[in-house]
Amino acid sequence: MDFLETLPPIPWRDRLDEFLTRCEDMPVPAREDAHAMAQSLCTLLRQAPDTVKKRFPLPEDDTLRALVKSGSIEQILLMITKPVGIMTSRAPSGYAIATIAVPELEIENSFSSSNSLAHAMTGAIAGAAIGIIAAEGERGSTEG
Q: Do 138 and 57 meet the contact criterion of CB atoms below 8 Å apart?
């Protein structure tokens, strides 16, 4: 038995926190790095709690595969954010910012990237997902 198999599973929120830290630590991602981060986010969202999946649903598998194959990562991220909406901006210099708001949970999260819209969108989604988990946890602990 592998040593790692004997360790307790890491909670989803902790994996998402680690993912967001990696996004933040990537100051100037290469295109392939930003795309890899977006694909990792899709993997995380597939395993997400229902409260996150409801707000950030993944496209159907066939659609997702076709968009990944064509390199349309930003389109995937736009589809994921359709239920909540996302505001994005990219300057001629490459600087990009993405903002997601979930008003019913009083969440507004922005993430910027020096050169990648996909990176900014990925970070904004991850940050908003963390906010959703925190808000839903607080809501659940105050109801009852």
A: no
